[in-house]
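Field reference: sequence -> structure
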Amino acid sequence: MKNAVRSAVVCLAIAALAPAAGAGEDACVGLPEHRDKIVRHGHNNWSDETLIVFGALSSGVAIPPGWIPVGADRIEAGCAWFPPRQATLFVNPPFWRVESIRSDAAGLDLQLLTLKSMPPEELDSWRRMVAETYADVATLFPLGLPADQALPHVILVTSGIAGDGARRSTRLFPAPGPNLTSLFYPPDSGRGRDLFIHTTTHLFNKRRPRPEAVPEEDGLRSTEYRELVATWAEIAFNRDDAHVRKRVGSLRRAHVALTDDDGDTWPNARSIAATRSAEGPFGLPPHAPEGSKAAREYAHYYLGPLIMLALDGLLAEKGTAVSVRMLLRDIHAGNSPGLLASLRRVLPERFGQIRSWMDGTEAIPAGLVERGLARLQDRVVEIAQ
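Structure field:
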């Protein structure tokens, strides 16, 4: 009963602090009929005795008797409204525990929701991962969150509910938003930590951003900039070095396949396999082939992190103590108008080459990527400063 009360307090606190729903959002509907739906990372819909999950709904949803909405913007007269694009989510209180994790670095209270049946050692693993990730990511954003956005944030662990997490069909993925993040891979999974770091970064530069966190430059839109930061953060802050090296190798192979002028070699990753039917060069949008989802996927999640690693490689080659992390902190502190402006200042002699990487017209040298990756071996020391 105590946990049920605390869960209600969590959800109501978010609802009370978040902006009120706008005009036209007052309709309240019953729960939709459950239908299985598997999206990019796993099940988008779910219904069992512990929780009910649907994709984002534009209307309010009637709260099932005895259940509690999680991550709602507003709760009123038995109805809950959720943020756009965030999962519609209800939990059954007897099955869940909730605990607060204060992130002083991020300047907000995190509410960790886990099943009571979870073994203590697994719970400890999630606690450690949440605390480390928020502490690390917050170092990129020295100004923190806007004062009106320092709201509680719910982190829901769905790992194990749909299966072992080895495939999309065995993962439960409630869509994240300003009030909700889910941990849906097995504990201590390298890829799971990647995605949690990515989503946490987006809390600062997409879902609750300061203007400094999303600079808009001629040649680098804010949309691409925030993905550059989030995909680089995955590599910079993932403490599983073996996983990071394996992943960077996979990114490199895809990059080589799209820049080797060989019409017979193409990336075999499912999300970007369709690049074979699009004409290059494959660069950061708006340079990506118009209308090619696979090309945009490649630009955001493959090319972007390789560029950022190579930038650290260039900085190391130059012999400067400046790092990519320092440049990002400087931008987010309001001391630079954006990444391109910073690179013109610190790497003027290599700026043309960097632009060619972004345009997709020149391959990124493997040696620079390797050098940038090696520089990140000191990331724990750098993070602690």
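Note: Confidence is low (pLDDT under 50) at residues 1-24, 380-385.
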